[in-house]
Amino acid sequence: FEGKSIKEICVYKVLIGKDFFFNKFFLKDLNDIQLTRSIILDNERLYVLSHTDEVTNLYNQRKLAIDLETTIEEHKQNGNTFSLMFIDIDHFKSVNDNYGHIIGSKMLIDIGAVLKDLLRSSDDIYRYGGDEFIVIMRNVNISIVQKIALRVLESIKMKDFIVGLKDVHKLSVSIGIAEYPTDAKSSKEIIKFADDMMYESKKSGRGKVFHLGQEVKDDSTSS
Questions:
Q1: Between 20 and 30 A from 187 (CA), which of 54, 133, 139, 162?
Q2: Angle at 172 between CA 162 and CA 127, to 5 degrees
Q3: Does the pLDDT value for residue 47 go beyond 70?
């Protein structure tokens, strides 16, 4: 049977069997199993595609809506809080206007990579739309979330985004934070709260982290 596929081997063994009537049903079952497996794999691929952003390969809005409801249900079971980071790229329209959407898309991919490097594997990252990202952070104290948000802020600020062959472009982001259920009681409310905090950062000059209407500052150097 060297060089033969599994199906060919099975077919050969069936054909030389004594009960050909039974073997026909065996072949039908074999084909049904293969068809079912193919349908399952296709459905899995469709599920992944329908919940993945086509530019960054991060999760999309549809997946965010599902995950938020699931996480809220988990809170009802275990009482654990979770937090949202709402991240918006400052002046991103000028990037698309000056360099084009291909460069803009590359920058979105690069920012997604920065977020993946900084965050835990248990933190879920979503492209919310345009130049906006959302992160769900579970089972972590809000003070730690604030520190991580500041780290995201600084990492993106320090990164050199390559434009063309060698030109370098700098970006900054504005970040809003919300905690469930402290700051909100539903999935829509927590997104709005985090979004409002992000706009507080925008109004205060951009490139900052806001929570509870106040700028989050680095206290690591405090005595």
A1: 54
A2: 85
A3: no
β-sheet bridge partners, residue 59: 52, 126
φ and ψ of 141, to 5 deg: -65, 145
With CA atoms as reference, report the closest residue to 207 among 90, 44, 125.
90
Local structure of 102: helix, strand or coil: helix
* β pairing state of 173-180 and 209-211: parallel
35, 27, 38, 137: which is closest to 80 by C-alpha?
137
Q: Which two tokens stand for residue 38?
A: 């193919």
Asked if 56 and 108 touch (Cβ cutoff 8 Å), the reply is yes
- Is 122:82 a contact under the CB 8 Å cutoff? no
Phi (first) and psi of residue 37, to 5 degrees: -60, -40
pTM, 2 dp: 0.79
Tokens of 85: 């980071």
Element (H, E) at 28: helix 20-50
Place of tokens 């991580």: 148
Looking at the predicted structure, is the pLDDT value of residue 14 above 60?
A: no
Q: What residues contact 63, with CB distance under 8 A and at least 6 apart?
A: 51, 52, 126
Burial of 102 (0-12, 13-18, 19+ CB in 10 A): exposed
Q: Are 219 and 209 in contact (CB under 8 A)?
A: no
Task: Output Rg (C-alpha) for the chain, integer angstroms.
Answer: 25
